[in-house]
User: Fold this.
Amino acid sequence: MVGSKLIIGSRGSKLALAQATWVKERLEHLRPELQLEIAVIKTSGDLFSEAPLSQIGGKGLFTKEIEEALLGGKIDLAVHSLKDLPTVLPNGLCLAAVGEREDARDGFVSNKWRSLDELPQGAVVGTSSLRRHSQLMRIRSDLEIRNLRGNLDTRLRKLDEGSYDAIILACAGLIRLGLAHRITKKISTSQICPAIGQGALGIETRVGDTPVINAIQLLNHIETELATQAERAFLRRLGGGCQVPIAAFGRVEGRELHLEGVVASIDGKQIYRHSVHSVLNEAETLGIGLAESLLAMGAGEVLERQDARQ
Assistant:
């Protein structure tokens, strides 16, 4: 932080820039004395935009280069989709704030059909996520699931060109880009449990950079922070990444924190699902406890089998 100027690091996709711009505009409103600008940084995930995520690496695929710029002092804070941010951060960095969560559900998007249930046998569905793939297979094992990578515009174009009968996308990204009208139906979290942190923004800074951390804290949404803290503790205990179908969804209800977690085999034939709840100040413990419960149910066998394939 030089004087009152802050540089925000972001990926260059439309969605990433929309999220970084939201942070910039909110900070400008809350702290008008600050001068803010956005620096675009290309990540490994952007360079390899066609290969399946499970094949090109997991943790840090969309964050590594941005975090290097943050550690090197080239930027002062980084805005991430929280679901892309590894649960263990590099030494010297911290998650300074979690922005309010948009709709965490996955969206069914189709130009022909109104829901997953309406899809005909053998319909082609696009997704890049093993988490979605496994849960789709659990619901509709007759579907043909094909890889779908690229930014939102690219994915929607491939659908419109007829390459897929339907695609599954995060509702939050479509809403933030003004494309909510493309969501044919929002899929309940009981059908497809979301990715850890889905719909939330993670704002990362350097440890000890007190002026920046204090400014960023103004954007922290406590209910989203608690819910995603539990989800991230769950994932951290299981040790999974993009290569393993793991999902979790936390929510605050009154004075309680509720958390549901899923571990599944890629083909959807084995799925372990469990829900827990606790008081609000035990988010970390809740996430770890849920992971332990699923491991006791047998989920560790699925994780070990997938690890052996890598």
